[in-house]
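HUMAN: Spend a minute on the protein record below and explain its fold to me.
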Amino acid sequence: MAQTKPHAIVIPYPYQGHVTPMISLSIRLASRGFTITFVQIEFIHHFMSKAQNLPAANFDLFAEARKSGLDIRYTTFSDGLPLEFDRHLNLEEYWETMFRDFPDLVDEIVVRTMKADEGMRPFLLVADTISSWPATIAKKHNMVNVSLWTEPAIVFSLNYHLELLKRNGHVPYNGRKPLYAHHTPSNPESEPLAWATLYLMEKANTK
């Protein structure tokens, strides 16, 4: 008999601030009857296990969730670079590799996960909105593509209205023009957005 319980393959963006919302979503979906396969990049897995003072081999984000009866599987895969490679120090090289090789690596693990699952059931691919590859892979494997925005709403607004901010002289950031929430149409009047200005400064400094 075919299974109808949906199976979500969740692949977070490889930064802690993006991983945590995906963990929360996975637990919420599992509590509503979904099967979850949470796929973590190995170097993030090692980073998180070290933070918990646990050997990587013994670290499982969802061990307690499974004890409560939730169907959440946890697995890791390589991003194609050795664990000792400094991704922060070599940021440009790292992201060149990610744009070039990461979609194929994701495709491989999606295929393996689907083949390992018994029976026929609906599959979902859950990924960060900031990722460029999910729609292509989901379409290839006849999956539902679920996009989760994991950053604050105003960061989405800043990115969405980037051309407007450029026209009004906020981007590239020059330190002379304060940014207010009402400078993007979806936000109300407010005091200068200090942290949003810092966000634009960071974007300018990482170009």
Q: What stands out?
A: The chain has eight helices and five strands.
